[in-house]
Amino acid sequence: MKRFLKFLIISIIIVVLAFAVFKLSNEYRMNTLKNNVSWSVVYKNCKDSVAFEKDENQNTYIAYNNYIKVIKIDGREETLLEDKSLEIENLLYYNNKLYFISKTDLYEYDLASKSLKSILGNIPSEGKYLDRNLIIKDSKLLLAIGSATNSGIASNDSEYSQNKIPYDKSSIDVTLNGFNYGEKKTGAFMPYGNSSEGGQKIKAQSIANSCIIEVNLNNDKTSLYASGIRNVKGWDLDSEGNLIGIVGGMENIGDRPINRDFDYLYKLDKGKWYGWPDFSGGDPISSPRFKGEKLVSPLIANPPNKIVQAPIYQYPEVSAIRYLAIDKDGKILEKNSNVYFNSKENLIAGINSESVVYDLLKLKDKSKIQGIKYSDGDIYILDSGMGCIYKLQSNNFGLKFNLPKPIWIFIFVFLFILTCLIIFKFYTKHSYKK
């Protein structure tokens, strides 16, 4: 009897431990939606983070609202920078330095000297569509600055007091058509309530909205890389060095609502004007495609060009797609496939060069994706809500049973207890015979 009680207690402990492991595994468990693609948790303790980055040695830098920490490749963690006056967004590593935006400034943090300095100020920082992103291309830092307004007209949506409603600053010289909108008759590129006139000229500002700024890191001087881009919601370089970005479409809201617009995947080239606020997806805003109660009139009388570049791909929704990493080596999907976050469906998806879309990973309800990065052949995803970083990986390792980890744990525990019972019965039976 004592032997049986001892065996029973051990079995209960094993089962409890098995369910504890099951619960721990189930905490992060998500459904993969494409054969031969799986995921794993590579880092934890990232809850409430806002951005992340990896260096050439696979050290991981994680940014929070007012501090940055590093998780070294051996697992050690260290806080690099902490300043309660900061409001960090974005994070970029280049040449042993970290770059990030806080409020109206672009900062550089030298990892060797542990010094912090602002290298660019007066960056637009207000507006509902003001996505701001950083990337390195051809040894230059590119800063994308989104629009302050939905479609070029400052509108009162009760988020700001009327005298502080953000409006767009133009990155190029433009002449206005003089169309005004809303109860206050507000004009393009004008403060809320200020009307425009036909032929009125708007001077370009060096740091403006709906554009990409190029920063020479040797002397911190800036130049205009591209303009007329409503907002870059995510971007990356493909294997050939092309800059590919997700550009958000205009919404059917505000004093100049735009119907039937979408999000887009664009190749972003230096020196080009992409048409915002008078074009979207390569189509003029006066097209019947965007018509509401009446056709939408263009705001700019002297557009830099009458035909603008079309996107690589048009998504079926607007304000749904963000963050982007390109599988440059094709280790997970086809080479140069784009991996992104679909906020409407709450999943990670991909699209290849043939415009075939794959659903890859269904996220949990409390997931909050804050970034997707390509690094050394792998795709990493920061989930601030779950407090971890996932890694997408290929399952092309030959024939195997594709069962979830908790099921394997249950099978192992069940077989172990069954084996113990058989041994126990055999031992008891032979003890009685003696």
TrEMBL record:
Q: Which Gene3D superfamilies match?
A: TolB, C-terminal domain (2.120.10.30)
Q: Which InterPro entries match?
A: 6-blade_b-propeller_TolB-like, Quinoprot_gluc/sorb_DH_b-prop
Keywords (alphabetical) are: Membrane, Transmembrane, Transmembrane helix
Name the domain of life this protein comes from.
Answer: Bacteria
| Coiled coil residues, start to end | none
Q: Which residues cross the membrane?
A: 7-25, 407-427
What name does this protein carry? Answer: Glucose / sorbosone dehydrogenase
